[in-house]
Design a protein that fits this description.
Elements (H helix, E strand, L loop, with lengths): L1 E19 L2 E3 L9 E11 L3 E6 L5 E6 L4 E14 L15 E2 L5 H7 L13 H7 L7 E2 H15 L1 E2 L10 H7 L1 E2 L1 H14 L3 E10 L12 E11 L3 E6 L4 E2 L4 E7 L8 E2 L2 E2 L5 E11 L1
Protein name: Transglutaminase-like putative cysteine protease
GO molecular function, one term: peptidase activity
Pfam family, one: Bact_transglu_N
């Protein structure tokens, strides 16, 4: 078990006072058998009214409402947690899903719903054609196929941090041959969905004490990866950026069908078009 402290600070600057609309915050780590949350605080400067709820997939969502115009906004999130994931997990996959192709039980297929359907336009089916290239035979070992697919993403797509907002469409990532961790996660999810798997995007933090993982700045950073659902085993984490399986060094905060639903901070303001002066994000994950 590893005791960790996550600090995540987001700062916004404006050239003149602006009225902020309600902001949606996804900053509280998700508890699970492998992650126990000891404490979690979110502080805003200037002060705002915070209300908490859970969304349709169980993410903890805070909504911040602001009373007066502001020239700056600082959102400080601090979480203390216990991480108890093993480096090389063994997955108890149900017999029905040990080999691919397989059919999800009716109840699970219905519940997976849109998470088992590609979310990005691809009229030529390029992502599906690319993904089927990793199916060596039918039937084939399911977990081996998913490992090959995840490693294939990192083999075909070079990692490169990207400052601009948003996420590349999977076809764009294939065309460019490079992308950020969120681009690689989206490509893997769409490739898995094209093969009939249920998949979702995860946004959170990467704990990297040795500073040898891609996508890490210092001992930790924000990160994105993919979870794929297998009967019996449940949701299995695949980090295509670092070619890892399981949640050994991953701290999930939000899961979503589409990565746009998992942004840590989302909001708008009323003011002139040039009022926004900039944003900075600082993250540390320390033992």
């Amino acid at each position: 078990m590893t005791l960790l402290t996550v600090r995540h600070r987001t700062s916004f600057r404006y050239r003149q006072p602006v009225q902020l609309a309600p902001h949606r915050l996804l900053l509280r780590p998700r508890e699970s058998r492998e992650l126990r949350l000891r404490s979690s605080t979110v502080t805003l400067t200037p002060a705002a009214t915070l209300t908490w709820t859970q969304d349709v997939v169980g993410n903890a969502v805070a909504t911040a409402r602001f009373a007066a115009p502001v020239e700056h906004l600082v959102i400080d999130a601090v979480a203390e947690l216990e991480l108890d994931a093993v480096a090389w997990p063994v997955f108890d996959i149900a017999a029905v899903a040990l080999t691919y192709p397989f059919a999800y039980p009716d109840d699970e297929r219905i519940d997976l719903g849109a998470m088992a359907v590609p979310q990005y336009p691809d009229p030529a089916g390029r992502v599906g054609t690319w993904a089927r290239g990793f199916v060596r035979a039918e039937p084939t070992d399911t977990l081996a196929l998913l490992r090959d697919l995840a490693e294939g993403v990192s083999a075909w797509i070079g990692y490169q941090s990207r400052d601009e907002e948003g996420t590349q469409w999977p076809t764009r990532t294939l065309d460019r041959g490079w992308g950020s961790c969120r681009d690689l996660a989206v490509l893997l999810a769409e490739a898995a969905r094209s093969l009939g798997f249920g998949a979702r995007i995860v946004s959170g933090y990467l704990y990297d004490p040795l500073q040898d993982q891609k996508g890490s700045a210092g001992a930790g950073s924000t990160h994105a990866w993919t979870e794929i659902y297998l009967p019996g085993a449940g949701w299995i984490a695949f980090d295509p950026t670092n070619r890892r399986v399981g949640g050994f060094n991953l701290i999930p905060v939000a899961v979503a069908r589409d990565i746009r639903q998992a942004m840590p901070v989302a909001g708008s303001y009323a003011g002139t078009a040039d009022a926004f002066a900039g944003m900075t994000v600082e993250v540390s994950v320390t033992a």
